[in-house]
Design brief:
Radius of gyration: 14 Å
Helix content: 55-70%
Structural class: mainly alpha
Oligomer: single chain
Largest sheet: none
């Protein structure tokens, strides 16, 4: 878990983090962490939320991998994390999250899927390098 001052966090994020830290069941832990990431995604125009959410990536990947049947889940967490990482300029990490989602056989709800998301991130990476 990202260990930083969270006094800036809104009530939704604080509650999700509290639920995550106090839960013991894998599914409940996943849902709580997904809630925290979703709130960071919604508030990503504020730099603290974007950076904090992106910082939850490793934690989320671990929690997700411990679920009973990860491949039956939806790809929302991966979608949100790839966007947060992309918006933070961490393009390679964003692409890595997309590849992980593809490995699990997850969908992001778009026509092009995570493959299309990778293409868009690569374009953003190239543009940022100019």
């Amino acid at each position: 878990m990202v260990a930083t001052d969270e006094s800036w966090a809104n009530a939704k994020l604080s509650q999700a983090l509290s639920d995550y830290r106090s839960s013991t069941g894998k599914a409940v832990k996943h849902q709580a962490l997904l809630g925290a990431i979703a709130e960071c995604y919604k508030q990503r125009k504020q730099s603290e939320y974007c950076a904090y959410g992106a910082g939850l990536t490793a934690e989320y990947l671990t929690v997700f991998s411990e679920l009973e049947s990860p491949s039956s889940e939806k790809g929302v967490g991966f979608m949100h994390l790839s966007t947060l990482l992309n918006d933070s300029g961490r393009f390679d990490s964003a692409i890595g999250v997309c590849h992980k989602a593809i490995e699990y056989g997850l969908l992001d709800g778009t026509v092009t899927g995570f493959e299309g998301r990778i293409t868009r991130i690569e374009k953003a990476k190239a543009k940022a390098a100019k």
